[in-house]
What we know:
Elements: H1 5-18, E1 22-23, E2 31-32, E3 36-44, E4 55-63, H2 70-73, H3 77-102, H4 114-118, H5 120-124, H6 141-155, H7 160-195, H8 207-210, E5 214-217, H9 235-242, E6 246-253, E7 282-287, E8 296-301, E9 305-307, H10 312-350
GO biological process, one term: microtubule-based movement
InterPro entries: Kinesin-like_fam, Kinesin_motor_dom, Kinesin_motor_dom_sf, P-loop_NTPase
Family: Belongs to the TRAFAC class myosin-kinesin ATPase superfamily. Kinesin family.
Amino acid sequence: xxxxxxxxxxxxxxxxxxxxxxxxxxxxxxxxxxxxxxxxxxxxxxxxxxxxxxxxxxxxxxxxxxxxxxxxxxxxxxxxxxxxxxxxxxxxxxxxxxxxxxxxxxxxxxxxxxxxxxxxxxxxxxxxxxxxxxxxxxxxxxxxxxxxxxxxxxxxxxxxxxxxxxxxxxxxxxxxxxxxxxxxxxxxxxxxxxxxxxxxxxxxxxxxxxxxxxxxxxxxxxxxxxxxxxxxxxxxxxxxxxxxxxxxxxxxxxxxxxxxxxxxxxxxxxxxxxxxxxxxxxxxxxxxxxxxxxxxxxxxxxxxxxxxxxxxxxxxxxxxxxxxxxxxxxxxxxxxxxxxxxxxxxxxxxx
Length: 351
């Protein structure tokens, strides 16, 4: 420390203490009737040798006036008004601490009190550290309990969880933006591909279809229907095959339900044939209707269908979107775990 600086600071502290209002109450013969704040502002000069930037440090030394039950301890009207102002600033500080400790993104009322506005950077500033020393009076159990509870709420700011929760919330918001942006990119590319698709093709690529199994009918697929015991080729199958339309797999089973008489012919037989040979799985495929038309559902043997892969660029964007969603869900789970642990910690402190 520079020569004479300690002496200068000491003189300032004594000068401030002399200007402080002290009075006698029913509770304390020398009660502090005002808060006292001493701020030491140190500016560090940049180092030309290391190209380091200049920094600054602020040290706040605060002596809080005691929280009092004014109706019990005030001896006149002036002390009653002083006690109301003291309790108001301490109450605001408590609400600020509570809002920060809960880490729920709620409004922090710094401006409701000159004390909290002055100390805002000391409470939540970059690399801020705050400590509270609570003075108790064993002869007054009610005041001692109130003071300890107030100090406990303040100490929650020094908990690892209380600082971790706001950080996790910020990370969740950032990941949410990234996931939303990735989804928008997928939607935009899907729309572009759909607009440029050939007539007759299914031009309905979307996040839903990208996550589903997409298939189309093989050439000469009707030949595989001829001896199938459960399914048969229909005119609708023939139309979908000629248009090379693409559908989404809805169901795969060994034996499909029997089609009821009078129902629409979707490829299932009304009366199943007997077959001793191994029969491949049966697949129900939905073809999305266009221009307001209803979707069509048809049954196929598994070996009649071939999988259709989306464009490589679309697959890459989908993978990036899924990675962003997975990172978001993981961070949300971490946030919920931290909130649960912090709630348990606060319960232990206040019980």
